[in-house]
Amino acid sequence: MTNKIEYVRFLNQDEISRYLQNKKATYIQKKIEVNIAIQQNDILLIKEYEKFEIEIIEKYENNLKEFRRNEALWKDKKCKCGVKLRFYTRSNFWGCPDYTNLEEEHITFKEDKQQKEKFDYDFSNVKVRLDKDWCSIIIKRLGLITKVTAKELLLFYQSIGFDDLREKYDYKSTLTTISTYEYANKKSKKEEEIVRDFLSKNFRVLSQPYVEYKFVDQQKKICIPDLIVSNNDQVFIIEIKTHNFYINEEQLQLYYNLISHCQAISNDRRNLYSIFVVNEIFESEYTNENAILINDLVKLKSKQEIIEFLQQNKFQ
Ligand SMILES: [Zn+2]
Predict the structure, then answer these.
(1) Helix axis angle, 150-159 to 134-141, nearest 10°
(2) How far is C-alpha 239 from the chain's CA centre?
C-alpha cells in the first residue's frame, strides 16, 4: 500500500448519530438543489426529451427501411447495383456477377434457407433502441452532469406526464434498473443478520462499526465493514454480499489494512483474516478462495469447525 495511514478510530454512538444526521441533511440538500436545477432548465429538458425520442424513432425507422430493402432485394434476387444475382454453387451463396465494379455498392446473400433464418433473426432485433441510462445521456447533452441526477430527472418527466421511454418501448422500467443496485445492497442487510446471529453464539461480534480513517495528506473518511468477529486468538473481518458479483476486493483490502493498523497500535497480536460471505455464487465464477456461502457457514456445528472454515476460505 502506497498510502500511509495517519489514524484509524471507531466512532461512538453519538458520533454515529451526528454523522448520519449530517449525511441525511446533505442528501436532502442535494435533492433540493437538483430539483431547482431541473426547474431552471425545464424547457431545455423537455425539448431534449422530445428530440431524443424523435432520434431513436428515426434510427428505428431507418433500420426497418434498410431491412425491408434488403429483404426485397433477396426476394427479387437483385443486387444493390441492379444486376441480377447469381448463385455460386461451390461457395453456396448469392453474389453479384459485377462485384469487381467498385463504383457501385453490392450485396451477397446466404443460401435461401440460411438467409431466411438470418432475416428472421435480424428482424427480431429491429426495434426502438435506447440505453437504460437515457436520462444521463440527456443530462450530458445539456451539460448538466454536475447539477442534475438521472433519477430526479426521470421523476420530473413522469410528474409532467411524460412516459418513461424504456417502458414505452417495451423495456424494463428505468427506475427498476436504477434501483437494482440499491436493492441488492438492501437485501444484504437480511443476510448480514443471519450471519451475525449465527456467529455471535461463539464469538464477539461487532456489527457495522463506523470506522473513521485518514491517510496522510488526505481527507478523513468513514467506512462501515459488515462484521468484525473475534475471540482470544483470531480476528475475522467479514463482508457480506448477496452475490459474488458484488464482491469488492479493494474494499475488503482497505478494511484489512485499517484493522491491522489498529492492532499494531494497541499491540494486539491476534491473527487477522478477511472473508467474503455471499448468499449466491455464479457457477461460472465459482472459486472457493474468493467467497464462502452463507448456507455452508451456518451448517457448521462447532466453534473449531467455524474457525477452520473461515481460515481456509480467507480472502487475506
Ligand atoms: Zn452488384
Answers:
(1) 100
(2) 18
Whole-number Å distance, alpha carbon 117 to ligand 1 midpoint, is 23
Tell me the CATH number at 301.
3.40.1350
Please return the burial class of 209, using the count of CB atoms within 10 Å of its CB with bins 0-12, 13-18 and 19+: middle
Centre of ligand 1 to C-alpha 85, Å, is 7
Ligand 1 centroid distance, CA of 106 (Å):
4
Q: For residue 125, which amino acid is it? A: N
Spatial strand order in the sheet of 204-207: 204-207, 227-230, 234-243, 271-280, 292-293
CA torsion 295-297-302-303 (nearest 10°) is -150
Q: What is the mean pLDDT of residues 145-170?
A: 94
pTM above threshold 0.90 = no
Residue-wise pLDDT tens digits, 107-125: 999 999 999 999 999 999 9
Number of folded domains in the chain? 1
- For residue 217, the enclosing domain spans 5-10+184-312
Mean pLDDT of all residues in the chain? 91
The 10s digit of each residue's pLDDT in 53-101 is 999 999 999 999 999 999 999 999 999 999 999 999 999 999 999 999 9
Does a structural domain hold residue 236?
yes
Q: Give distance in angstroms: CA of 108 to centre of ligand 1.
A: 9
Cα 76 to ligand 1 centroid, rounded to whole Å: 13
With 80 as the cut, is the pLDDT of residue 2 above it?
Answer: no
> How far is it, in rounded angstroms, from Cα 184 to Cα 48?
32
Contact assessment for residue 57 and residue 128, using Cβ atoms and an 8 Å cutoff: yes
